[in-house]
Amino acid sequence: MTRTPRDRPERPGKPAVRIGRAGKKAIPSADDTVIIHGAVPPRDVLMRFISENPDKASKREIYKAFGLKGETRIELKALLREMEQDGLLEKKRNSLVRPGALPPVTVLDITTRDKDGELIGRPAEWPDDAGVAPAVSIRQSSVGQSKGKMPVGGIGDRVLAKIFPAKDRGGPAYTARIIKVLDRKRNNNAALGVFRASADGGGRIMPIEKRGEEMQVDAEHQGPAKDGDLVEVEIVRSGRFGLPRAAVKSVIGSVATEKAISMIAIHAHGIPYIFPDSVIKEADAAGPATMSHREDWRSLPLITIDPADAKDHDDAVHAEPDPSPDNEGGVIVTVAIADVSWYVRPKSALDQEALKRGNSVYFPDRVVPMLPERISNELCSLKQGVDRPALAVRMRFSKEGRKAGHTFHRIMMRSAAKLSYNQAQAAIDGNPDDQTGPLLEPILKPLWDAYATLTRGRERRQPLELNMPERKIVLKPDGTVDRVFVPDRLDAHKLIEEMMIQANVAAAETLEIKRQPLVYRVHDAPSLAKQETLREFLATLDLSLVKGGNLRSNHFNGILSKAVDQPYETMVNEMVLRSQSQAIYSPENIGHFGLNLMKYAHFTSPIRRYADLIVHRALVGTLGLGEGGITPAEEAALNDIAAEISTFERRAMAAERDTVDRLIAHHLSGRVNEEFDGRVSGVTKAGLFVTLPAYGADGFVPISTLGRDYFIYDEAHQALSGEKTGLGYRLGDQIRVKLVEAVPLAGALRFEMISEGRKMPTATRSFHKSGRRDHGGARKIPGTRPPRGRR
């Protein structure tokens, strides 16, 4: 895949410049046209300059940056006035800013930390009608702190900060440096936990984090908390000895109730889950969509194919042979997506709440939706036999699976059938039921024929093909785990997936052709450091990964194919997955490495992803399809929106993962001291992470419990091996472990190793006497010998 190179970040306060043909300074615009120094720049260059230089965005600074004098200054004033009228810019004091952008100096409230421990703040004052307040990553220099030259902030503090545009994708859109701490709220030690009452009053707080610690609550600090309540507490005293003393600040609810486990994750990650009255009122007032600017497609037999328990249906499909003599053997594939943009308009209460959530969050026992049920499960759900508004793309493919063209349409549709994946697959496999029998010849078989055509295109494209089965948890009525299983991966799943991918590609291509700003779904190639780590690991299995900057997804597929049916197949799949970058949202297109696609945007799930709603609005606006199109203010804020929804996506993933960990830990808590079959899923200098394949549970074996030996951590081989015996454990090893501790509220499991280690390669047992890493990547782990008499 030929990828668009990532631009080098510019220095703050300096526009990106290069030399034009006349030998003068020039500035490249977004479409790479050369702007001569001294000429009025186009809108996109001005927007980029103002965004990247918020402290130099006055008219005088812009004149200087672009070398404008005389009449060109008058032209620039007129252009800036037009941009203000179009909502692309607004005045704040003497500077110009993008609507919703932060001024160069801002008061922030520090609210949380990210996964790397960096402080995250948000503006202390933010207009109610401006959507979600942008997150700001606060950088604190350890050098400055040690010398007392830089103010140090903590969670809960209000600070005055210098704001800079972020250089990295995928995180907050801004970084900041603290100028002054305005107010210390002293709630840096706020935490969530479960209150366990004592007989004599007061009680203890049981942690909900794996690394949390218990806290003591005296009777006078208990407040309204009862035994089993999930509470928010604040540490009031902490010393060198004894448990920290805490005070209950608020009661969230009882952990004995159904769905309590997911509620812990919702509060711990700060996920909005209650819709404001204004949002519910707006949703309840919404009525059926009109035929304005719509084509009537109600006679086209589009069908939905979803999980059997799905409550909202936002995509429908149809396929037929292409009747055109110019495309013999080709097919026409139609994908229709719920027209959420008709109901959720920019700056409305529904829109602001959807952006605040970013996406729906799916737990085993509940869904926290992005939109109220009136919208997601009713008006925008493509129900069988009911008229529903949709945005549809009709795509033509050759018999080789190459796309010959596509068109977008705003339509009114009526779903001909609601099928489950298993139901549709059974019909194709020769077991139709009363519903699918009449649909088999006219609808289902043409869909499967089209899927075969698209598969030929996919095989030629060669996206990354990881084999990482996902487990599904089935709960009992009381919210506890009933069973864990790996659902079958059916052709019906693959059919819908491939058709959705092609619809997403079509959306990105159309918007690019129209030069319409949008939010892409981008996936960068693995970093050179991750490539090298993977390369070293594969070398230990006599597998090789090509070197160089032109790495493509098919190179990884070659490695994965060689590992099929080998003892290390799972291990190789996991290591390839770890080497990958994280997919994010961005208005800058760098392509999608994993899918091996140059243009890709999320379009197919606007009910549950805000990114898709933005793409719908962009299509409606640029194609002139009626009301609900993207606004200039939204276009100007795409950088902020992309950063926010990328952050919210990671928040949702973390909350979902934590909930599964807690549910499984609760499920296994009654089986302490039992033995299980496991697999080494991670190797660190502190010990081994172990997965129980039958449950999808992850736990830890501390290195101090592995045996009476010093252990060496070999990063290249992903192994721990004993210095004297040479026996050890490696990523992917099938092992037997005993469960020795389960902490359900924290989702933590601790195991003891039962299996004897196996002989490790000699390279893993060589190290410098200092204990530092040698040329083979091995490192001695000091202090791992257990006390005398301990196993």
UniProtKB/TrEMBL annotation:
Gene3D superfamilies per record: Nucleic acid-binding proteins
Keyword Hydrolase applies: yes
Listed CDD domains: S1_RNase_R (cd04471)
EC number: 3.1.13.1
Keywords noted in UniProt: Cytoplasm, Exonuclease, Hydrolase, Nuclease, RNA-binding
Chief localisation class: cytoplasm
S1 motif domain mapped to chain residues: 673-754
Database matches in PROSITE patterns: RIBONUCLEASE_II, S1
SMART domains cross-referenced by the UniProt entry: RNB, S1
Annotated Pfam families: CSD2, RNB, S1
Disordered: annotated span: 1-24, 760-791
Basic and acidic residues biased stretches: 1-13
SUPFAM superfamilies registered for this protein in UniProt: Nucleic acid-binding proteins
Reaction catalysis annotation: Exonucleolytic cleavage in the 3'- to 5'-direction to yield nucleoside 5'-phosphates
GO molecular function, one term: hydrolase activity
The family this protein is said to belong to: Belongs to the RNR ribonuclease family. RNase R subfamily.
PANTHER family from the UniProt entry: DIS3-LIKE EXONUCLEASE 2, RIBONUCLEASE
Protein name: Ribonuclease R
Species for this entry: Rhizobium herbae
Gene: rnr
